[in-house]
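Action item from last week, closing it out:
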Amino acid sequence: MLKKNEGTIDRILRVILGLVLLLGYFVYPDATYRWAFLLGIIPLVTGLIGSCPLYTILGIRTCSDDKG
């Protein structure tokens, strides 16, 4: 299991950003770089699981508890 390294606000912002980007994929079907909206999957998934691989590599933690 991955260690939690994202705080509550960080997770909420990631989920919102991910959903907005994925929504853009469906709202703008004729966009030139429509595939770029699919990058919203990354913040959505990391926000839902509470762990970011890039944060782990860089040694960043935005959560306040030491249980992660």
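Closing note: The chain has one domain: 8-58.
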